[in-house]
Amino acid sequence: MIDSLLAGASHLAVPANLLFLILGTALGIVFGAIPGLTATMGLALLVPFTFSMEPATGLLMLAGIYVGAMYGDAIPAILINTPGTPAAIATTFDGYPLAQKGMAQHALVAAAFASCFGGLLAFVVLATAAEPLAQMSLKFGPAEYFWLGIFGLTIVSVLSSGNLLQGFMTATIGLLLSSVGMATLSGEVRLTFGFSAMQGGIGLAGALIGFFCLPEILSSVIGKRRETYGGDQVQPSLRVIIDTTVDLIKRPVLMIRSSLIGLVVGVAPGAGGNIASMVSYSEARRWEKNSEEFGQGTVRGVASSEAANSAMAPGSLIPLLTLGIPGSPPAAVILGALMLHGMQPGNDLFVVYSEVTYAFITGLAVASTAVLVLGTAGSFIYARIINVPSRILAPLILVMTVVGSYAIRNNLLDVWVMLIFGVVGLALNRLKYQPAPLVLGIILGPYIEDGLVQSLMIGGASGNVLSYMTLRPISIFLILLCLVSAIWPILSATVLSSRRNLSSSNELKADSSNVLTKGRLNSDLIMGVIALIIAIIVCVKSLGLSHYGNVFIRSAAGMLVLLAIAALLKGFIKPDRNHFFESLAERKRILLALGILIAYVILIPITGFIIASIIFYLLLALTLQPNPLSIKTAILLLLQSSVVVAVLYLLFNGLLQVPLPEGFWVD
Amino acid sequence: MKLLNKSLFGLLLLPALALADGYPEKNVTYQITFNPGGGSDIRARQQQPMLEADLGVKVPIQYKPGGGGSLGWAELVKKKPDGYFMSGINIPHIILQPLARENAGYETDQIEPIILFQQIPFGITVMKDSPFQTLDDLLSYAKENPGAVTIGGSGTWDATHIAHLQFEKMAGVKFTYVPHKGGKPKQTSLLGGHTMASWFGVSEWLPYGDKVRNLAVATEATVETNPDLPTFKSLGFDLYSSVYHGVAVPAGTPAEVVGKLQDSFMKIANDPEVRARKLKDGILPIAMSGADAKALIANRKEIWAPIVKEFAK
After folding, report:
1. B199 touches chain A (CB under 8 A)
2. Which terminus of chain A has fewer Cβ atoms in its 10 Å neighbourhood, N or C?
3. Residues A92-105: pLDDT tens digits?
4. How many angstroms separate the CA atoms of A244 and A95, rounded?
5. Phi/psi class of residue B152: alpha, beta or left (left: φ > 0; alpha: ψ in -120 to 50)?
6. Interface test with B, best of A204, A410, A664 (most B CBs within 10 A)
7. Domain B26-117+244-311's class?
8. What is the pLDDT of residues A476-495, one digit of tens each?
């Protein structure tokens, strides 16, 4: 084994190989960092280039892309509250608050260090214990996925600290949203309201961009007219790198726990980084001391998420290399690339091609190290991005949200979904509802539904569904985890309640200084009514579906009705009054910006991406101008918008070969 | 008036003539109706350099996944039939989706196949330690215990599902069909013992070597990779099941343009190296012309329409 590793490592001594590996890592960081582009897509685009290369060189480049992307997605998560890929959702929870405190570099370095740590730890496991872990991965069946999904849902209780009812209500709405489109198993088309373009369901990329990115831009940059995106100016320094790294080295338990969670979730075929980082974050919050710091901006939160999603990458390669079963979507592309080079996973890979295989495995470790170097060195540059004045940055980011939500599926409907989610996200924020549980519901829905439906089928064939679903070792373990997770808030409530009161009273004070009008909206009443309406629509619309097509929808809708009633009761008994807009001026600004954004999306299919984007960029930049407008600034802004859009167009359409929307008459 | 008519007619003809003459004058988009990195994508990216060399223009690949491919095919039929937009197609998907769904977004005859370049036959596979040694074992057990045998498939209204329904009808037995979210999860299920048997394509069972055992394959003649494996036909079932992969343009595309594309794809399909690699992976390399593909589609549609009608609610 050691011999094979060394033989594999010798490939990395070839300068060209090392160069392509590092190039791949850098490219991966870019793909991860652009919201809407994913590791999967980066790998797919690069596969043709590997044809002409030696197998080892090509695979090393792919290893770099995969590892790089798992770090890259943290950059926008930290800087602009937008996860670059779904795997970085949990990174936003603490990364963005850190950036707001002027500590963007701390977060970026923590992400790089944790990514490297997670990647290296998973590499060691991959190199030493692949075979037994792969056998374990096969034990994951429908029942296990169902319980994994349910366990994921219990994270809500950690994420929405203090308000379980709100958290579970939005999570359940997320579950229902996940069922829009074609049912993966029964093949039935559901809840599309007659739009055939909705058969693909709600795109996760678009939903994430809308949900995390838009509300931030609309409320801070446009509503509050903040000068820069981050709160304070960031001054990167070497000191920060050393301090942050030392801080994390002193927390081996956190780092190892997070990495192991990522590894195990990666090994389970089909689960992937989205779940890994969420579970890891919530476990960190559960077990770490001073857990009230989580969500307010702590490097520990960033590290827990990033260590997990980076450990997931080598983890997902364990069942791939040994059994040919990809543990994640990017791993599936790597499988395709292996096959193209005539290498079949399994025995073939470890005996016939062992040298190339071990070169690839060692490549993962080297790429993880490259991430640390590129990440820490790059933090000097990335961190300064948010020092750019927001009147330049905001239009650019908004154009990018459109590109990002369109890019993966070439579907303009996804752009509308992004926009709608943005508005919903803003409204939820204003009603003091957490948005994260809703996204969690969208992500977990398919696991729970598919697990449930297949369990009903297989359990039904065996004669006893209940025993099939509960009496299996991993299921029992997961059920126990669910129970612990469910009881936990009650256990910790008594301990934490005193601290929480303290921090929430601080929040209130900060809020009240900005409030101009008293809130008139009763959050729980509004959300309760909306939830009831959703539940009723869903029930009516699912009437014609088969049993397997609607068992999940019905159960979720039933749960939503109960939660909605509870929310209504709470709204009557203990009203929590909020307001959509803090002031008339804010309302005017946000509505104007929204109007321009909607006009933009309407314009895209008519004039095509370029013209619509230039007009949009110019209009928004004009409205964000602080001073009275002169001809000179107008012309400068026009130039600026043309250049920015042209660069974006060349980058995506030319370099990355990602097509952008075309107009009817420009074609 | 006559002159006007003539010139109008000429104007209408002009674009078509210009198309056929200089085609292709600009990039030809190749749409993939599944996710980046999937089987269709990898195939297309393999063809991409050869296509670009032959056509002399760029062939950018574009994705439109969703709805089991239906979103992409709905997009295809909306495009101008000028040969500058083509899409990967899968049979049976493009036949079964419009049959089984009220609003698939397209009709099968709106799609003009250029070529079918490969075929993967399906069969029933069990694990090595399964008590079912032969198809007969499986059938007699299922006859005694209706619904107790779970058989995995890749999805609903795909090749495995329709083959399963046909087989149940022919054999007069009841299994429990367990659909999955594609081929890989289906394989994982069988390997992990979550399903007792599964509909596997040749390319799906080959990598597992002697970890698995095949009971029968749904082809006319035995398959090259498993010469001892009986066909369903030899066991008395008139069952043929394969998934075919190809490329298509919107119906109404000028014949010359279709011909030009067909020539390019034929060259790739008949390339000895491409064929050898496919055979090694358990894929039958074919080079079926658009016309033959149309006939195949018509034939399958006739067989499947009544089955879909019976089972789709």
Report:
1. no
2. C
3. 999 999 998 989 99
4. 13
5. beta
6. A410
7. alpha beta
8. 999 999 998 888 777 766 55
